[in-house]
Every structure is written in structure tokens, then in C-alpha cells.
Amino acid sequence: MKAAIFDKPGLENLKIKDDVELPKITDHDVLIRVKMAGVNPVDHITVSGTPEIKPLPHIPGAETSGVVEEVGQHVMSLKRGDRVIVYNKVFDGICDICMGGDEMLCRNGGGQLIGVATNGGFAEFMAVPEKNLFKIPDEMQWELAASIPVTTLTPYHTLKRAALTIDEFLVIFGASGNTGMMATQFGKKMGAKVIAVSKDNWIKDFGADYIITEYDRVAEKVNELTQGKMADVVLNSLGVKTWENSFASVGLNGRWVTFGGLTGADAKLNVQSLYSKQIKLIGSTGGTRKEMTEVIDMSKELKTRVWKIFTLDEAKEALEALFAKERDGRILLKVS
């Protein structure tokens, strides 16, 4: 089969090969023909060699959609031809955390991802455990399907953890990014007043009530828009570069929540502001399988903005384009 594969860290080492061995499936696995894969920072990090990669040579790709090609003899829920997406967390399903419904925190999975701790979806075929696959409706476009496992599930889980409710003010940093555009839609569905921090006016089409374009004046603008109340929930997945502005935007009894640190992870915290305003700092990662079904159920009401679709042969270019200044929406990889 054809796959994007590397044998040592470095984007320059990512090669497209036509003779990669077809994955073998066990009795509980499913072989899928990959249709489209999302291209995310985690894929760039994987190829660059920051996390512990297994196996080597390695096929990246943490966000995958496709069609069932073959099923193991003990697979009961899927059949050949079913359209599916991959829940990309490695989990055993039997530890206390998994039994409590938080598979993404599995004690024995170690927070690892399919596509990082296993081969991923930048290939024509992929072997996946049955428990990691979810059927999707026939009418769902592959562009959205390939955006659900990471780009959509992550902010959905995050806003649920933040307990966002009707009429609350939600501030989203990086609102026109992959997860930001989805967080904007979920914020509106949850009844919040959404303040998008972005230079892109198109985010209004995704449900933003207000847009703040001046990144160095976010807290000041939030103060004006909320008439001094400030935000009930601030979502900042961008990291230390926007930390001070985001924390300063949280109001009394507010919640500051994150699932990423693209610009750095070490922030300086004003403890006095934390306790005097009774702010909750909330970390979030991925989402649960139950939440995956919830997202699929509401998928008809969701949309994604696509900037460019690359072919599998252009996997390296797709990863490089992640940080292009002109990027204006999702980057996807059309595999078959």
C-alpha cells in the first residue's frame, strides 16, 4: 500500500512509499480504507520527533476517517462498506478510569494516541481496534468526518468540563483555528454569548456574537462588551503567549480552560487574582467515546472551513502548511 512514512525524526525524512506492508488485523480489529485525514499540530510534532514514537518506521496521522474494508472474526458492530471515524485514544477499557467513562485518561494507555503510539492514517489502509471505531451517517461529508476525532471532540469535551451555560460570556482565543471554529459553534449551541478573539470576520458565520481583533487589548475589550462583568468562561488553547490576556479576561467565579500550549506551556500565575476572584483553572484533553456519539448525533448542525486539501503524495507539504501565515481554515489530506 501507499503511505507517508519516516524511519527517523525530522520532516525531511517523511517519504511517500508505494510498497509499505498492508496492516494485519486480529480477531478484534478492523481494516479501514482511509478516505480523508485531518492535518494537525500533533502530526507535525510526531514527525519532528518530540513524543515517543512507536513503531519505527512510523506512519503519522491522528485524525482519520474511512470505509471498512475487512473485519476480524469477532467484530460484531461493523461490516464491510461502513463509513467510520477513528477515536484516537489508546485505552484498555478495564482500568478504573476507563470504567468511569474517561477512556482518554486510561491509566495503562498513558494518554497515548493512535498515530503516535501506533501507526496512523496517512496511509491507504489502517488497522484499528473495533472499540475505537464509530459509524457515521452516509450524508456526512468527508471534510467534516475527518475533523471530528480531534478538531471537534476536543472543544466539545472542554466546554462541557467548563460547565458553560445559557447567557454566559465565552471568550475563545484562536477562534478561527481548527478547534476554535468548532468551539464557537458549540458555544452558541450551549446558549452562550460568544466573543471570538480573531482577525477573521468569517468566524461570525460560525456563531460568534462579537469579534476582538486587537490581541493586546483583549481584556479591555471584554470589559467593554460585558459591561464590566468579564467572561464566565475563557478558552485559551494557544499557550503562554496569550496567557496574561486570557487570565485577565476571566470574571468572578469564572473558569479558564485549556487543552493546548502551542506557544509554550510555562505561565506565571497571579495567585491573588486566582483566589480573590474565585477562578477555576481547568485542564482538558480529548474527549470520551460517549461524547463522540453525541458529536456524531449533532453533526448535521456542524460545519468546518477548509483552506486546502492535499493528496497523500503531498503529506510533507500539508504538514509544512500548518504554520503558513496565509492559512485560513482546515488542512486535510485526501488519501483515497
Give a nutshell description of this structure.
The chain is α/β, with parallel strands linked by helices and 336 residues long.
Structure description:
This protein has 336 residues and is α/β, with parallel strands linked by helices. The chain has two domains: 3-147 and 304-334, Quinone Oxidoreductase, Chain A, domain 1 (Alpha-Beta Complex), CATH 3.90.180; 152-283, Medium-chain alcohol dehydrogenases, catalytic domain (Quinone Oxidoreductase, Chain A, domain 1, Alpha-Beta Complex), CATH 3.90.180.10. Helices cover 23% and strands 24% of the residues. It has ten helices and 15 strands. Strands 3, 4, 5, 6, 7, 14 and 15 form a seven-stranded mixed beta sheet that branches. Strands 10-9-8-11-12-13 form a six-stranded parallel beta sheet, sandwiched between helices. A two-stranded antiparallel ribbon has the order 1-2. The longest helix has 14 residues, at 148-161. It is globular. The mean pLDDT is 96.
Number of strands: 15
Q: How confident overall, as mean pLDDT?
A: 96
Oligomer: single chain
Strand content: 15-25%
At the first level of CATH, the class of the largest domain is: Alpha Beta
N-to-C terminal Cα separation, in Å?
Answer: 11 Å
Structural class label: alpha/beta
Q: Give the overall form.
A: globular
